[in-house]
Every structure is written in C-alpha cells, then in structure tokens.
Design a protein that fits this description.
By secondary structure, the protein is mostly beta strands. It contains three helices and 38 strands. The strands form three sheets. It has a 34-stranded parallel sheet that branches. A two-stranded antiparallel ribbon has the order 11-12. Strands 32-33 form a two-stranded antiparallel ribbon. The relative contact order is 0.08.
C-alpha cells in the first residue's frame, strides 16, 4: 500500500518544512521491503531528501516538491565534485529507485539569483577577439545572462552509485545549479520529462550523465541555462570508470551553452547514439570536446534539426551548430584523449556560425563523417558585436579561448579521414565579410568531399573566399561539387597529393 507523506506529518502547505516527514515515510517504506511513497496535491517545502533502495517517490498531479531557500536545510555529502556537495533529492548506493508521477519538483532557483547583475568574470582576453575592447562592453550586459548568484545548493537531483534508476513524467523547474545528475550508475531510464530552468542562471543545466553505463534518455523537453544534456566530467570527484552504452532520442532541447555536450574530463566516453532531436534557439548545438585524458569514440548523430544563434554573456560557444575540438587546457594531463569514429547524418541546420572541427598536430580528430546535411548561414543582430570569432574554451593559451577567425560553412583543422558526403550550403543575403569559404580543411590526412553544393551568394567582400579550400594536407578526393546562382565555383588547393579529382 502506498505511503502518503501526510500520514507521517507532512503538511504540504508551502511554508512548513516537510523534510523530516518525507524522509520518515521513505525510511518506513524501505524497511518494509520497498514500495511507493506518495506526495498528494500540495506544496511541500523541503531540504535534502534521501531516496532508498526499492522505493519509488511518486508526485501526484498537483503535488509540488519545492527546494528550501535556506542553504542550511541541505545536508552536505561526504564527497563533492566540482565543489558541489549538496542536493535536494539524493539516492546513493541504491538499487531499484524511481521518481515518477505527474507532479513538479521546483528547485526554487530564483531565491539564489541576482537577475539584474551580470557575471563579469572573464575566462578570455578581449584583445584576441575581432571586436577588441568593444567585445566586453556588450558582453557584460545581464539581459542574456549569465547573472550572479549567492551560495546555492549544488544539485537538484543526484543519483550516485545506483543501479536500476528511473525518472519519468515529472516536471523539473528552476534548478538553482545542476538539475538532474546521474553519476557512477548503471541501468538508467530518463523519460517523459519537462525540464525548465532559468536561462540566465549559470550552471542551471538539464541532465548530466557521468561515468554511467546503459543509459536511455527519451521524450524530454529541456530548456536550460547550462547544457541541456551533458555527458560530462561532473562526477570526477565521485569516482572513476567510463561513460558508455547510451541512447538519446525524441527530445527537444534549448540552451545558452550547448544543447548536447560530450566531454571534457579525465575518463572516456564511448558508444553513444543520438537520434530524432530538435535543437532550437541555442548558443551551441552539439559539442564534443576533449580537454584531458578522457577520449570520445563511437558516437552517432542522426535525424536532427539544429537552430543556433549568438548570445551576449560569457557563455561558451559562438553560435556553432556543431563543435568538435581537442585543445589543451590548464588542467590537461598527458596523454590527451582522442576523438574518433563520429558520424553525423540527416541534419537540417540554421545558424549564425558554421561547423567547427579543431584537432591538434599530434592528435587530429579521426574518422569523422558528415552525410546528408543541409546548412544555412544566417545573419543576426549580434554579429557585429560577437561574430567572426572562435571559442575553444577552456584552453590554456588565451589566444585560443575566444579569438578572431574567418567563418566557413564547415571548417576543419588537423583531421584524419574526414568525409563530407551530401552537404548543401545556403546563406542569407548580407552575410558579414568574415564569412569566407564554403568548406575549408587544413592540416589533414585523407579528405573525401562528395556532393557539395555551394549556394551562398557572395558579395564583393565575400569574394575572397572559395567554395572549397584545402591547405597543408595529403590525400583528397573531390567529386560532384557545384556552385549555384551568382557564386562561382572556386576550389583552392594547397595539397601534397590529390587522390582523385572527378567532376569538380
């Protein structure tokens, strides 16, 4: 029989702290061998709740579990990761645990935010940007965030060292920091979730998965300030291992950071599949980044719509729909991880930046494929203030943090075995001068470009660019390339050896 928390002293009146009553109900349910603890309609103000093995916490329609605005109500964990050791809902070393129902978990993030104060900490040098000092003047406005905050809880919901986890059908609102974090766990289903956090508050992300295996995420809508879904190093303080055997499907995502991020910690990421996704109004679409020993391999993306744009503020990213990079950071340990065996297929993209791929001379991005991609370069109101820059943060060299760079439809530097098959490139009228080449690949080994259509109408300023530019590499195959409208087909080659050149 379900255990109703009101039978254990919870009032659900929105003002009384119900932490102890909810924990009592969970403890009794666990001691009885497991079952369901129910929050019926009401507003339950609470500090830290610990979910125990074989217990389902069910929030019925009309039930709201609201995090306390008092940091003292959150019990610290004995360990932390990235300085975060407090949480509203905790499941630790638990088996067969679930959060479900039609109710809402409200992190009460507004209680910890200063929405009128921009976070002006700088992890870049404005002198390296295209705009120089003017970049900071616009960047420091608070209207796009991130904003400042007072000390706040570290994580809204944390599953740590758990097995057989399910979170389903709930609405998760206003996370004051990380929202739903699955760390060092096995057998996880996250489905049917509505996650909405402030897009002004830094680190108020959606779902983080770290060092976990056999994870399924599906049918979620996520709008967040930090990454909407991240496979990340967020559990490096909790344990070790790898993150692998993951699927993500049928989700809509929006973020001021990256809608999807993989990387950048000490532990590897492998065997991940993403399909049937819509990414919209995001600062960065898909990000794969290596900054430490943890590599990324065997990852597939298919049937995805991506729409990105530039935002003010110190959010990482500059409107790239896809960003793949290997860059040493100040904390990097040798040997750096690799990115290899990654495929993108059947994508429709609109963005104020092109696709960016950056490897290292001794560590190129390997076996990367783009297939059946339609990409439209868009103009936007912030291109004069922020456009024409690359963002490779976190990078040890400030010249590679945020820096001026010409923009291509697809730019790849230090790659091995890059294949582009069926790329259709379009562009708005009036693109800025810093938009140059259609495809620009440099420092490469083995590149295949088959079926590229360049339909960007180049102005005199854009005329310096080429449809295809290949520099400092060896082994290239070019087939079935065309330029339509008034754009001449320009192919610039500085290649040691062209393997084949057919119907250019």
């Amino acid at each position: 029989m379900p255990h109703d928390v009101k039978n254990f002293g919870a009032l659900g009146d929105g003002t009384t702290l119900d932490t102890a009553a909810i924990n009592r109900a969970i403890g009794v349910c666990h001691a009885a061998g497991g079952g369901t603890v129910v929050l019926s309609a009401g507003i339950y103000l609470s500090g830290t709740i610990e979910l125990l093995s074989r217990v389902t916490l069910q929030l019925e329609a009309g039930a709201v579990l609201r995090g306390s605005g008092n940091l003292a109500d959150y019990r610290p964990l004995p360990q932390s990761s990235e300085g975060r050791n407090t949480t509203l809902i905790l499941a630790r070393d638990a088996t067969d645990v679930a959060l479900t129902g039609c109710g809402t978990i409200d992190g009460n993030g507004d209680a910890f935010a200063f929405y009128d104060r921009a976070d002006t900490y700088r992890d870049y040098a404005a002198s390296c940007t295209r705009q120089q000092a003017e970049y900071d003047r616009v960047n420091d406005l608070p209207d796009d965030g991130p904003v400042q905050h007072r000390p706040r809880p570290g994580i809204l919901i944390l599953f740590l060292n758990c097995r057989n986890v399910q979170v389903s059908q709930l609405t998760l609102l206003n996370a004051p920091n990380w929202c739903l974090h699955v760390a060092c766990s096995h057998g996880v289903l996250l489905t049917g979730l509505e996650i909405r956090s402030s897009q002004l508050l830094p680190n108020s992300g959606g779902i983080d998965v770290s060092l976990s295996h056999h994870v399924r995420i599906s049918d979620c809508h996520i709008a967040a300030g930090d990454d909407a879904i991240a496979f990340s190093p967020c559990a490096d303080g909790f344990g070790g291992g790898s993150c692998e055997h993951v699927t993500v499907s049928n989700c809509t995502l929006q973020s001021r950071s990256a809608a999807l991020r993989i990387g950048w910690g000490e532990h590897p990421f492998r065997n991940l599949v993403f399909h049937n996704l819509v990414i919209h109004d995001s600062n960065r679409g898909i990000c794969l980044c290596v900054r430490d020993r943890g590599g990324i391999e065997n990852v597939l993306f298919a049937n995805i719509v991506i729409q990105t744009r530039l935002y003010k503020g110190k959010w990482w990213g500059k409107g790239e729909p896809i960003h793949v990079s290997i860059v040493p950071a100040s904390f990097s340990k040798a040997p750096m991880g690799r990115i290899r065996n990654v495929g993108f297929s059947h994508l429709v993209i609109e963005g104020e930046q092109g696709i960016v791929v950056v490897g290292e001379p001794a560590n190129p991005v390997e076996n990367l494929t783009f297939e059946n991609v339609r990409l439209r370069l868009r103009t936007g109101p912030l291109q004069a203030s922020f456009g024409g820059n690359y963002d490779l943060r976190p990078a040890a060299d400030e010249r590679r943090q945020v820096f001026a760079h010409a923009i291509a439809g697809l730019h790849a530097d230090h790659v091995r075995n890059l294949a582009v098959r069926g790329l259709d490139l379009e562009g708005d009228e009036g693109l800025p001068d810093f938009f140059r080449d259609g495809i620009h690949v440099e420092n490469f080994e083995e590149v295949t470009i088959d079926g590229f259509r360049d339909r960007v109408e180049r102005s005199p300023g854009l005329g310096r660019g080429s449809s295809i530019r290949l520099e400092r590499g060896r082994g290239a195959s070019l087939r079935h390339a065309s330029a339509l409208g008034t754009s001449p087909l320009l192919v610039a080659l500085a290649v040691e050896k062209i393997a084949r050149e057919e119907k250019i």
